[in-house]
Amino acid sequence: MENLCKVLIVEDEYITRQGIRNMMDWKAEGFEIVGEACNGKEALELVGKFHPHIVLTDIVMPVMDGLNLEQNLRVKYPEIQVVVLSSYSDFKYVRNSFQSGAADYILKPTLNPAALLKTMREAAARIPGLAVQERQDRSLTTCVERILSGLSTEETQKQFQGAFRKPCFILAGMDVIRIFNGERAALEKQKKLLYQSLEKNMQGYDFVQLVADESILLLVINFTQAERKSVFYNLKETIEQIARQEPKTCYVVSREFTSPSRLKDIYRGSFLRNLDRIFFYKGKHFLTEEDFKDSEKSEKFDTAEYAKLLGTLQLEKALDCLDVYVDNAISRHSLGEMELKTLVQNAWYRMISILEDEGLNADDLSYLKRDCLVKIYACPYAEDFKRLFHVMEADFRSLVRKYKIDSQSDIIKNILGYIDKHYNEQLTLSSLAKQFNFSYSYLSSYFRSHSAEGFSEYLNKVRIFHAAELLRKGTSAISDVCGAVGYMDQSYFTRVFKKSVGITPREYRRKYRR
After folding, report:
1. What is the pLDDT of residue 105?
2. DSSP state for residue 207 in the 8-state scheme
């Protein structure tokens, strides 16, 4: 590739150097790391050897620090751009580095691929005669992004059709953030692996590579009918090659389509739906439309019957009911990943609430509360989810059998019932005491002695349960959901929701819909 901007990394910490090297696909963005040095003296030797355009250097280093390195570069190589890496405590050095002619600086604690790339491009733009070439036309990537998001114009369509003149298209992609359980670094690594494999296996074919919806590494491939067989063969070879280096890799390929106007519908429809369905295909690396088993329709989970069993303390029968439904849903592929996980989480939270009301030891329930959320959502595949479900189900049964559970007292039952019906009102412990003719202090102590949590914690739990339901089923704004469940302050609602669920309301809605 011509016109690569050459970069020298100078940093005394090996882990930091490796982190920077692997933070992005440098060549894909038009840069090349030509060397690494652990101090300024070593860097000067490498500068004479590799003639970099940019030196990315730490400030505090042994032998020769970044400031002395910069001053030497100003004298011997004034054309080189210097970008400084610093900590918050290095402000004095950063100020001195600018006086010596540094182009820019980056704070280590805030270092991320986007910020680093932006700074490096700005530094490269100051170099006379250097025009950094990226792997593919950014305007074409933006064009495809606009089409997928429904923001395309007539000009956008013309640009797309001008770039892709062959009659056939397919989409291929992987939801990297989902498969790697939220690891943002995995996305950059996968971009790099895909680029390397595409260069080897897909030369001569027309395609564009991009990140869609912040987490999906996507390919749009254009080909003729005569190329169809070879495109699929070489694409599969590309993915299998990546999978040998990263076994979690799993790409979904859309059905073939011939009209560019169908790009958005194919992506938003069957393609995203199949990305969600890889939940049922552990161990697969390459899945086409034909590989997906048709899901069978199943009856909705009988939440009314489940609630009735819980209310009458027939807890093992309630577990039987849930057990049968989950096994059928997994074997028939009848529910999406998020729908299934949310159903089980809600069912278990309701049971935990019953067990808490019966005065079970908090330590016996604490890990179930934690695992209900953390471990359930961390299961990337149905096989793992089913195994965890049965382990936790057995733990629930063990607790039910261990404790002798009596009926709830009428008083606390009526109080909790009132809260469940009036959660969206401005309830306070004082108003509740007045409603049930108790003193404030008596009701406070009574609530804590007959429930595993205080009034505020219980009210928040009920409200967040209903908020999650509104986020899943409706399209109301977050602010409207906040008000609908009784919160006056949206920022407070967001904090309580994240503390309870682990993610913000906006992230919860986006993840559930995905």
Report:
1. 76
2. E
Residue 92: C-alpha distances to residues 86, 99, 108, 115, 153 (Å): 10, 11, 15, 22, 50
Please report, for the chain, how many H helices and E strands are present, in that order.
24, 10
What integer is the mean pLDDT of 438-460? 73
Q: How far apart are CA 236 and CA 298, in angstroms?
A: 34
- Say which DSSP state 257 is in: B
In a domain, 280, yes or no: yes
Domain shared by 120 and 163, yes or no: no
Q: Provide the pairing of β-strand 251-253 with 5-10.
A: unpaired
Beta bridge partners of 209: 219
For 144-156, write each residue's pLDDT tens digit: 888 888 877 788 8
Looking up residue 496, the CATH number of its domain turns out to be 1.10.10.60
Tell me what pLDDT residue 221 has. Answer: 94
Please compute the mean of the pLDDT values over residues 204-214 and round it to a whole number.
87
Cα 11 to chain center, whole Å?
Answer: 30
pLDDT in the model for residue 168: 94
Give the contacts of 73 (CB within 8 A, at least 6 positions apart).
Answer: 44, 47, 55, 80, 82
R_g of the chain computed on alpha carbons: 29
Lowest-pLDDT choice from 173-182, 209-218, 368-377? 368-377
Alpha carbons within 13 A on the beta-carbon side of 474:
15
Amino acid at the residue 131: A
Q: Are residues 94 and 219 in the same domain?
A: no
Count of domains for the chain = 4
Residue 31: DSSP 8-state: E
Q: State whether 105 and 142 are in the same domain.
A: no
The domain of 104 spans 5-125
pLDDT at residue number 380: 83
Contact 156, 179 (CB under 8 A): no
In percent, the amount of the chain with pLDDT more than 90 equals: 28
**Residues forming a β-bridge with 22:** none
pLDDT, averaged across the chain: 83
Structure token digits, residue 199: 């260069």
**Distance between CA 372 and CA 167 in Å, rounded?**
49
- The tokens describing 172, both together, are 């291929």
Looking up residue 11, the CATH number of its domain turns out to be: 3.40.50.2300
Tokens 């009574």 belong to residue = 446
- φ and ψ at 180, to 5 degrees? -100, 20
Q: How do residues 453-485 score in pLDDT, each as one tens digit?
A: 778 888 898 999 999 989 888 788 999 999 999
Length of the chain measured in residues: 514
- What predicted TM-score, i.e. pTM, was given to this entire model? 0.53
Question: Which of 402, 428, 447 is at the close of a domain?
Answer: 402
